[in-house]
Amino acid sequence: MKTCIHVHKLETILPLTFSCAICGMRQICMPPFAPPEMLEKLDEIISLRKRLKAGTVLYHSGSSFQAIYAVKTGFFKTEDVHEDGKGQVTGFYMMGETFGFDGIDTNRYRSTSTALEDSEVCVIPFGQIEGLTNEHLDLKHHFSKLMSREITHNHSVIMFLGSMTGEERVAAFILNLSQRYHAREFSRSDFTLRMKREEMGSYLGLKFETISRIFSKFQEEGLLEVHRKSIRILDMEALTQKVGHSPRHL
Amino acid sequence: MKTCIHVHKLETILPLTFSCAICGMRQICMPPFAPPEMLEKLDEIISLRKRLKAGTVLYHSGSSFQAIYAVKTGFFKTEDVHEDGKGQVTGFYMMGETFGFDGIDTNRYRSTSTALEDSEVCVIPFGQIEGLTNEHLDLKHHFSKLMSREITHNHSVIMFLGSMTGEERVAAFILNLSQRYHAREFSRSDFTLRMKREEMGSYLGLKFETISRIFSKFQEEGLLEVHRKSIRILDMEALTQKVGHSPRHL
DNA sequence: CGGCATCTTGAGTTGGGTCAATGGTCGTGG
DNA sequence: CCACGACCATTGACCCAACTCAAGATGCCG
To answer: Which helix (H) or strand (E) covers residue A161, if one does?
Structure first.
């Protein structure tokens, strides 16, 4: 497997109501029928790798848009920055997922992207890819789909923030991570949170204390085992229930 | 002006912190340098119009994706539907704005789109447009930009829902509508809400009673004059303040 | 071993939701 | 033209989920 983008079989079908809520469907997996010569050109274009230490910024909000990035290893967050105050986390990206589309519009990134652990990304120079899409309509369409996915994903997050309680959000978030890890052939029940409570809270529209409390509650109820950043899902079924039926049923 | 898509000068520069928060930047306005022959072909492709009575559905969630739509006259909402319960409004679209991008990914619309008043849309058959973009790179890039905008717009809404109080949301929403009307050379201080309280609330992540209360409060404070669906902004400055500085400052 | 960042837990407050009653507005049909 | 009824908006009383402030606890790294 020569480049990071040939990550097949990631088109996971997520099982739940909320499946699209914060689904991890941002993969750049190529369709299986992609012609080899295109993949080869892709390989050329996407030859550059970039290593980042934990905590390092990949691109800053407002900086010139050059490339889209696909995570090869590691973990990233993107956050939009409010002028007056702090920012808000808009996404988490793990191995095989792509981000940076928000820069296309204005030629500047709107968000800031930070590595949450030592990471490596594939640099996908947007200009060159755009060129390649002229010859390969499949590829063009594929990129449209990637962007469309980002849009529907965002719609889901919006619904999510607009209508779910704290517990539902946390449950959905954990299940989503579980899905994404599982799709990458890691354990679906044991994994490590890469972000801190505060970042998770920012993403979910909750304060970090609230996240902490909800984790404790889930633990009391026997759904999870949480210790700092390590998560073990004990009762997948019950956790799923939490999401599906919302107490104030909207 | 032959087709609805030649709506120039809509690239409004929004003035505030929240400007991108729920900016109306979804216009399909063509760049001024677009070659005439391309515009002509566009005209051919986008020759179909569709009239809808208030309350009529343009496309249903799950139905086959054929086209993107640009609002010629009238007003639309899009809403994502939760399986178990009700949906959530994900966007409002007025004259000159485009929607329907969420269908590209799966070839089915994820949202349902409804006319909120008697309306007319331009039908933009996606397949044909995609074909045209093969010859006209400008156009292709333009569509990428439109989608990118939708993404950044969504990010803003996410930030919005995740971090602002009810009053801030309503203030931002009203100012946003004001902007969008103004950009279309309507009054920026007097306009009519096309959606009902409930739809507005759904979009803003608030109950309709809360919307109502906040309107009343703003009225007491002399910021607005609200009567049912008619809005008059009395103190633009103060309304702007409401948005900028959030009481719990995140 | 200490210093620092992160996480947990507690106590008190509040923004917004829920439920319920009332009031306006508009369209329809007698 | 008015009266009815459906729909939408306003307002009040009460409640609870999540926030704030604050104090410890835990683990990490030099």
So the answer is: helix A137-163
C-alpha dihedral (A74, B102, B97, B231), degrees to nearest 10: -90
Contact criterion met (CB < 8 Å) for B105 and A152: yes
Q: Is the CB of A76 under 7 A from strand C?
A: no
Q: What is the pLDDT of residues A80-109, one digit of tens each?
A: 887 655 678 989 999 888 889 989 888 999
Instruction: Compute the nearest-CA separation of B186 from chain A (Å).
Output: 26
CA-to-C1' span, B170 to C29 (A): 39
Block residue for tokens 């619904």: A159
The alpha-carbon radius of gyration of chain A (Å, integer) is 18
Which residues of chain A are within 8 Å of residue B11 when distances are taken between CB atoms?
none
Structure tokens, A145:
């789909």
Q: Which amino acid is at B103?
A: G
Helices marked H in B164-206: 166-183, 197-204
- The model's pTM is 0.79
Which residues have a Cβ under 8 Å from the Cβ of A12 and sit 6 or more positions away? A24, A25, A179, A180, A182, A183
Which residues in chain A have their CB less than 8 angstroms from residue B205's CB? Answer: 161-163
The phi-psi region of residue B178 (left if phi > 0; otherwise alpha if psi is between -120 and 50; otherwise beta) is alpha
On whether the CB atoms of residues A177 and A239 are closer than 8 A, the answer is: no
CB within 8 Å: B156 and A80: yes
Place of tokens 């089915």: B108
Instruction: Identify the residue whose tokens are 């007491």.
Output: B220
Angle of CA points B218, B221, B222, to nearest 5°: 90
% chain A with pLDDT above 90: 47
- Residue showing tokens 């990458």: A184
